[in-house]
Amino acid sequence: MQTILIVDDEPNYRLILSEIVKEEGYEVLTAESAEKAMPIVRDTDLDLVITDMRMPGMGGMELLKEVKIFNTNLPVIMITAFGEVEKAVKAMQTGAFNYLTKPFNNDELVVSIQKAIAHYGLVKENLRLKSEVSNRYSFANMIGKDEKMQNLFSLIEKIAPTTASVLITGESGTGKELVARAIHFNSPRREFPMIALNCAGLPEHLLESELFGHEKGAFTGAASLHKGRFEVADSGSIFLDEIGEMPLNLQAKLLRVLQEKTIERLGSTKTLSVDVRIIAATNKDLREEINNGNFREDLFYRLNVLNMHMPPLRERLSDIPLLVAHFINKFAKQLSKPELHLSNNALRALERMPWEGNVRELENTIERAAILCAGDCIDVADVQNETQSLSPISISDETLSLTQLPAGIKLPEFLDHIEEDLIKIAMRDNNYIQAHAADNLGITKSLLQYKMKKYKISKSS
After folding, report:
1. What's the pLDDT tens digit per position in 362-379?
2. What is the pLDDT of residue 203?
3. Its pTM surpasses 0.90
4. Domains within the chain, CATH numbers bracketed
5. 20-64: per-residue pLDDT in tens?
6. Are 22 and 50 spatial neighbours (Cβ–Cβ below 8 Å)?
7. Which value, to the nearest 10 degrees, does the dihedral of the CA atoms of residues 374, 377, 380, 384 take?
8. Comparing C-alpha atoms, which of 50, 3, 43, 52 is closest to residue 27?
9. Are the C-beta atoms of 86 and 78 separated by less than 8 Å?
10. Ramachandran angles phi, psi of 302, nearest 5°
11. By the 8 A CB rule, do 197 and 211 touch?
C-alpha cells in the first residue's frame, strides 16, 4: 500500500484531502506544518508528499527543497492559491512533480496522485535494477556443467513461471539465494521487487517487525511507521533464508500469510492484502526439525510445494575449473590485474580440497589468493591456509593391498573401499576422537563426520 503525506496548516483542508486520498486506497499521514512534516519524511517510507504552498513558518517551497535534499526522487505535489502560478512554476523548476491551483476538483487531484506514484514506482524499480544487475541472476548464467546442475537449471525453467512456493535445501555456501533470484528474475514477477531476509540474523521481536512492519509507538523504539518486507515485496517475491531458524510463533504468522495472503503491522488492527511469492531456503533437515518440535509440519507442506536441492561442491568437482575461471576473471577486474591466472598445480590442489564452505569458500579462497599472490600467478601456496593440508595422509601401521580386493572391482568402488578403511584405521589409532583422527587424515572434523555417515562408521567402535 502506497503512503502519502499531506501537509497543510488548515485542519479542515487536511481532513478533506485525507478523505479523498483514503477513498482511493492509499495510506495517509498528515502534518500541520512543514517543521512537523520533515521528521515524517526522514523516518517513513513515503511514496508522495502533498503540501500547501503558503504556511506559517517554513513554507511549502522550503519544504520542497528539504525533501529533495533528503530524497531527490520522492515526488511532491504543490497546492497553490489562485494568483500564485508564478510561485508554482518556480516550484516545478525546483523539482515539484506537479502543482494544483485552488479550487480544484477531486478528479484532478486523484489523477495527479496516480501519475506521481506511478512515476516514483518506475524510478525506484530502475534504481533497484541498476544496483543488482538482473542478468547476473539468470539461471542460464549460473555456472555448472555437472549433471546435477544441469538438472537444476531445467527445474528452474519449469518452476519460475508459476506462483507456487519454493523450498531450496542445501548446505551453507552452495548458492541457494542465487537460485532464488534466478527463479524470481525468470518469472512474471521480475518487474517487481525481490526482497531477501535472513531469519537467523535478527532477534525474534525485530524479525517480526522486519517481516510485517510496525506502527509508530508499537513498541519501545518504534519512533515511526515502518513497512515490513512483505509489504515492500508486494507483487514480487520474498526470499526467507535459514527458514529453519524462525521461531515457532512467527511460523504461525507466516502460515497465515501463505493461507490468507494478508498481514498486519505490529501495533495495528488493520489488515493489508499482499501478493507475494515465498521462496524459502534452509541448510537444516526440516523433517527432523518437525520431529524435534522445532518446525511446524503444516508450514513445511505449505513451503515445500516445489523443492529444489543444491548439491555441495564436493559432489560436483568437475565444475571447479569453471568456477575458478569465473572468479579469476571477476577479481582480475576488481584488482586491476588483467594478467591474473592460476597455475596447473594450484588448480589440482583446489580439486583435492574438501570445500565444506562450498562455492562461497572457493570464491573467498580465490579472492584471498588474488590479493596476496606475488605477481599475476596464483600458485599452490596461495590457495592454502592454516586449516587446509595437501600433504599425503599418513596411517600408522596398516597398509592396503590390491590383493585384498575382489577381482573385477571398479575404480569408484576401489576408492571408496580405500577411503572407508583409512577412516576406520585413523579413528582406531586416535581412540575414536574425531578431531584427532581428522588431523591425522589431513581433513576437517566436519568432513570426517560426513564421510563416517556416508560409510556408516560408528563413532565409538
Report:
1. 999 999 999 999 889 999
2. 86
3. no
4. 3-131 (3.40.50.2300), 138-311 (3.40.50.300), 314-383 (1.10.8.60), 402-455 (1.10.10.60)
5. 999 999 999 999 999 999 999 998 989 999 999 989 999 999 999
6. no
7. 60
8. 3
9. no
10. -70, -35
11. yes
